[in-house]
Amino acid sequence: MTTTLPTELEKLSVSDLLLSDRGLATQALHADEAIKDVPDVAPPIHVSTTFRYPENPEELVPLRAPDETLTSPPTSKNSGLTTPHVYSRHTAPNTTRLETLLSTLLHGRVLTYTSGLAALHAALVFLNPKRIAIGHGYHGCQGVVELHQKLTNCSILDLDCPADSLGEGDVIHLETPINPTGEAFDIKHYADKAHSRGAYLIVDSTFAPPPLQDPFALGADIVMHAGTKYIGGHSDMLCGILAVKSVEWQKQLLLERLVLGSVMGSLEGWLGVRSLRTLELRVKRQSTNATNLVQWLHGQLTSPTPNVTNTVLAKIAHASLQTSEMAWLEKQMPNGYGPVFSIWMKNEELARHLPSRLGLFMHATSLGGVESLIEWRTMTDSTQDVRLLRISVGVEDWEDLRDDFEGAFRGLSKLA
Ligand SMILES: *Cc1c(COP(=O)(O)O)cnc(C)c1O
Questions:
Q1: In the prediction, which pLDDT does 353 show?
Q2: How many A from CA of 56 to the centre of ligand 1?
Q3: Residue owning the nearest CA to atom 6 of ligand 1
Q4: What dihedral angle (degrees, nearest 10) is formed by the CA atoms of 379, 384, 389, 394?
């Protein structure tokens, strides 16, 4: 087994990775130029689990000690690509290409995993904290932290625990914007808190993919994404992502991923490259659509005149409604807010019936795809209020989504 990064990833400097004078949409199409070694315009699909060693016996570098190959990576062309891929539990071409693109887009060094939760698990195995401070976000992340506690006996603290209850090497896990409401938390505040104690800040930035938020710019040590959501963007792949600042951390994570075995399937790696080409278009559209819908719903809800919306709707939450916190929020999310928000109906029955009354929003869990979804959240998260519905806004015309809500509320208001 080898512990090297593919040479092409290692040789790229951070400025290569950033293509720093280019915009995000350009980067998403061209940040993999350096490892494009086939004439195909569309990315090819590689499915091999194993890769031939160099023909030339002089180029064979046996693994004697784990560190040796770190300093002498293989250099030959062995698959038509200049990739020293050996075995796909280590690295494979489609996934390496996805990771190369993501390293540019996320401003860090990226590895991908089978799912978002597998990525968080890998981060905890890597940092092995004695204490983890975590809020009430995506319930699955809480589950990963509890598994880590089962193995290590670490303490689980509240996100807003006193700073002096944290120590060297501990972790603050911050999800922002948070599931299911899409409300934002101040990344810099939690970065400063972690660093004042020698602890690390992991930011789960799933709800605000590029270009909406760059947690590294505000002090995050590890940025995590459920790539299943906006990075994939088409509801057809599971993917977890960790981005870190140094090659050393990336190397260690790669070594540990090789043993954990939580690598993405090759076809998912290819789907991910396909998806990133339109990331900027999709996310900007989804963000604008969501903010337009939220502003309209909020306007109807707070209107002094009775209407079909304020007859059935009790409450709405989204980062765009955090008007008293704009001082830091506009700096953290300068390009728009996340495309997920939540609404509370006046009672459980109205919440149960709303999804079936909508024509464009599909009633399903998950989020981030091009199609709009709504979920009566109690279907998959027992910790949520039974009146709450989570909405993931897609790329449809927002006026049609608005009309869909208005029609459904009209029908329900006759029952209310
Ligand atoms: C979906 C999600 C996860 C978990 O991702 P999977 O790919 O389903 O494992 C983690 N965090 C957030 C905020 C999510 O939305």
A1: 97
A2: 45
A3: 116
A4: -80
